[in-house]
Specification:
single chain, mainly beta, 18-stranded parallel beta sheet, elongated
């Protein structure tokens, strides 16, 4: 409370009247003037004046009910009075004002954004084990994240985008994450998540210096798993990954090896397996445990490098799209059904296709402009629900495609062929 010099002249209304009334010191009558609510000034002929508070004293019932406060003439204890001109001791501090406005933050609650090394140090010192929201690294001038966040085990999402100088990212205790997004980090060479077991979406895109990705315990990736334009990445090993929503490798020009020996199902909203774009160094891929692709098996793209694809356990796929690929042969020995179309077109190195267990294509089947294709084996195919076309496969004999058509017991809705090789069949 701030004290005014005027308080020295204030007395309760009744005591003042009893002591002075309206008479001045020289015995003459004074002139009484009301100067405001509950205040009066008595002006005397000797030039002096007195100001008084005329408000009646607070009754006990008023005190009990929170009514008018005790008269200001009652002095506060010395230790409760603030020096004149100083801030009132009852005024909030800056920190209290921040808290009152909702500005005080718990570094472990909601979402956290790191922009400076000090932000990171504060975050690590807080010892956060879980972040329900997003951990965002948005620090273009921060080359390292030290010390490591050894306590953090779970996050809603991790966003590391556009950090021009960050060279490495390690979260040594992280076990679960909703989403991971690492995009456009020009200097990032390594990603180390040694305990990560479950994640929603993984998008690792356009990190031109990235050479190392360490996620040895990743088992479940429920959404897309996407590596796109990481042009320095040479190898990727996810040794126990069992399920993913979608898997795409697109234009990773240095990638020579992908190891996912336990991947059994790709069954997300799209559920695609895609090897597309300029993966010029990835010449072979084997996924020995993969049984189901709920979306599209998509192979091809300009400057595609994949020559050999081994999917020995694949039984079910929704769609097959092999276009502009570098494949020389493709055999899917266990595939029994395509739930939608099969499209094989413009594969100039492809010499042989073999689908020995395929019985059903639920939509159309098109084999177009595969200029080196000489053998096509689908010996048990009995159903094609859409159109069936063979055009301009100049090394494939017309009698081969006619035999495939003639063995069908259901469909096709239409059949067309032309521009294929002449000759007789055994």
């Amino acid at each position: 409370m701030r004290l005014s010099l005027a308080v020295l002249f204030l007395f309760a209304g009744a005591p003042f009247a009893a002591a002075c009334g309206s008479t001045c010191k020289d015995g003459s009558g004074g002139t009484v003037v009301n100067t405001g609510p509950n205040t009066q000034r008595i002006s005397c002929s000797d030039g002096t004046s007195v100001t008084s508070n005329t408000q009646p004293p607070e009754t006990p019932s008023q005190r009990d009910s929170g009514g008018p406060q005790a008269d200001a003439s009652v002095p506060e204890p010395a230790d409760a009075q603030a020096p004149l001109g100083d801030a009132d001791a009852s005024e909030p501090t800056d920190a209290q004002e921040v808290a009152a406005d909702g500005g005080a933050t718990d570094p472990c609650s909601g979402s956290v954004t790191i922009r400076t090394s000090q932000d990171w140090e504060i975050f690590v010192q807080a010892g956060c084990t879980t972040i329900s929201g997003q951990l965002s690294i948005d620090a273009p001038d921060l080359p390292t994240l030290t010390p490591p966040a050894t306590a953090l085990t779970s996050i809603g999402s991790l966003s590391v985008v556009g950090n021009a100088t960050l060279t490495a990212l390690s979260l040594p205790a992280l076990a679960t994450a909703g989403d991971l997004s690492l995009t456009g980090n020009d200097a990032l060479t390594g990603l180390d998540l040694p305990l990560l077991a479950t994640v929603g979406t993984t998008r690792i895109i356009s990190n031109p210096a990235l050479t190392s990705v360490n996620m040895p315990l990743l088992k479940v990736n429920t959404g897309p798993l996407l590596f796109d334009s990481d042009t320095a990445l040479t190898t990727l090993s996810l040794p126990i990954l069992a399920t993913a929503g979608t898997v795409y490798f697109n234009t990773n020009t240095a990638l020579t090896s992908v190891n996912m020996p336990e991947l059994a199902t790709i069954t997300g909203d799209h559920g695609d397996l895609g090897i597309t774009g300029s993966n010029v160094a990835l010449t072979s891929l084997s996924l020995p445990a993969l049984t189901t692709i709920s979306g599209v098996l998509k192979i091809g793209g300009d400057d595609a490098g994949l020559i050999s694809l081994d999917l020995p356990a694949l039984t079910t796929v929704t769609e097959i799209e092999i276009v502009h690929s570098a494949l020389t042969t493709l055999t899917l020995p266990a595939l029994a059904m395509s739930k939608s179309q099969v499209y094989v077109g413009d594969n100039y190195a492809l010499t042989g296709l073999s689908f020995p267990a395929l019985t059903t294509i639920r939509s159309q089947a098109n084999f177009l402009h595969n200029t080196a294709l000489a053998t096509l084996a689908m010996p048990v195919l009995t159903e094609v629900d859409g159109q069936l076309t063979f055009f301009n496969n100049i090394a494939l004999k017309q009698c081969v495609v006619d035999t495939i058509h003639d063995q069908l017991t259901t469909g096709p809705s239409s059949y067309a062929s032309g521009g294929n090789a002449t000759g007789t069949c055994p």
